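## retry 2 of 3
previous attempt timed out at serialization; input unchanged, resubmitting
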Amino acid sequence: PPVALDRLWLRVEHQALIALPHTGGIVFCIRIALHRLDEVSRDSMAAAGLRRALETMPPALAAYKRIEGVRDQLIPLLG
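## retry succeeded, writing output
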């Protein structure tokens, strides 16, 4: 189907490894944020960064992320 920014989401993961000084253990944390692409496209810096990432992404990585079918349609929509 045609790509529509209001129907696609960007998933962002913030990851942290925190050393526990008393035990020597490590805590691994992930914070996940979802952003609708029509909202991302309204922020010119975010849209430009996402566009650049999509334009320079190797084909194997696009396949891994399962975006190879929409990437070429999405790039022009991001400005």
